[in-house]
Amino acid sequence: MIRLLILTLSLLANPLGAATAPERHEKQGSAQVPERIVVLDWALTEQLLDLGITPVGAPELALYREWVIDPALPESVADIGLRSEPNLEQIASLAPDLILASDLDPAQLARLERVAPVRVFEAFSKDHDNIAAARDIFETIAQLTGRAALAEARISAMTAELSALRQSLFAAFNGEVPSVAVVRLRDDAGVWIYGANSMPAAALEALGIQNALPQPPSRWGAVQRPLSALIEVGTGAVIAIRPHMAGTAVFDTPIWRHLPAVQADRFAEAAPVWSYGGYLSLLRHARVFTQALQAMSR
User: Fold this and answer.
1) Among candidate residues 82, 86, 50, the one with its CA nearest the CA of residue 64
2) What is the Cα–Cα distance from 24 to 13, expressed in whole angstroms?
3) Rg (Cα) of the chain, in Å, rounded?
4) Each residue of 38-55: pLDDT tens digit?
5) In this structure, how many other beta carbons lie within 10 angstroms of the beta carbon of residue 169?
6) What distances in angstroms separate CA 145 from CA 52, 132, 153, 235, 258, one per listed residue?
7) Which of 31, 44, 53, 256 is the most buried (most CB within 10 A)?
8) Burial of 262: CB neighbours in 10 Å, binned 0-12, 13-18, 19+
9) pLDDT tens per residue, range 136-156
10) Are 237 and 178 in contact (CB under 8 A)?
11) Is Cell inner membrane set as a keyword in this record (predicted)?
12) What whole-number distance in Å separates Cα of residue 273 and Cα of residue 83?
């Protein structure tokens, strides 16, 4: 239980990484394109890797390889400690040209600026569109690293693939794809439900799927609810993104067994994908949701 609590706090302390309005602070440095970049959260890690750039340092690599997975993290990346409390000595030892961060408090920013130039992005907020924010950050990083053309090409490719995935889903369900609630199973009594301003909800919209359990906008786009809330899904489907925070104990509970979606075989697990990631996470969510739903349609 203690380990679960620590993991939960770790994931939610800095779980969510992509965002909006680009720059907040930037220490003056070389005008040259940075080659050695340290990132302080997983969303920024994704953004760099999606541009074909390997950061020299990133946080909590073992957890990244469990919770994020794609894009794959090269072995050359050094672990800089916690997302909420990076190791400044480790960062300094990597001699970065640039540090990329989101939502830093002034004290932490001041310490980092003594190591290298820092670029800070405004991250997830209830008051802005998190998905548009992620795109802004992606394009800003592309400009910083001289890869603007590549970023636009990958965005165009994503748009095309989203359209293809949508068509394949509607074909699989003969034009009647069920509404879907996307969740993470917190424990045997509660779930995180993704609603407005979340990457999973945006992926459902891109696939032309109605959210079966809409939630109001929030900073992270996820709302903690009791497991019984899934009764409200009714005739819709439920997709739970792995890994489950407390294992699979929930599947043995009476509430779970009596959920309408479970009894009607409208439940599926999605492969791990980071729901607070970079802009191209939109496509990664759409892929795993399509796979889960197509398996359900058979």
Assistant:
1) 82
2) 21
3) 19
4) 999 999 999 999 999 999
5) 20
6) 10, 20, 15, 47, 52
7) 44
8) middle
9) 999 999 999 999 999 999 999
10) yes
11) no
12) 18
Tokens 């720059």 sit on residue? 23
DSSP 8-state code for residue 167: H
Instruction: Tokens 């001041």: give the residue.
Output: 110
CB 207 within 8 A of CB 179: no
Give the amino acid at 216.
P
pTM (predicted TM-score): 0.89
Whether 99 and 115 have beta carbons less than 8 Å apart is answered as yes
Q: What is the pLDDT of residue 297?
A: 79
**How far are the Cα atoms of 29, 37, 55, 255 from residue 34, in angstroms, in the given order?**
10, 7, 11, 53
What does the block give as tokens for 120? 């800070």
Axis crossing angle, helix 130-144 with helix 199-206, rounded to the nearest 10: 100
Name the β-bridge partners of 180.
211, 237
Tokens at 207, concatenated:
């696939």
| Strand pairing category for 57-58 and 267-270 | unpaired
- Distances, alpha carbon 104 to alpha carbons 27, 100, 122, 234, 237, in Å: 14, 10, 9, 41, 38
DSSP assignments along 9-29, one per residue:
HHHHHS-----SS-EEEE---
Continuous segment of H or E residues that includes residue 182: strand 180-185
Q: Do residues 54 and 77 make contact, with C-beta atoms less than 8 angstroms apart?
A: yes
281: which residues sit within 8 A by CB, 6+ positions away? 18, 43, 46, 134, 199, 273, 274, 275
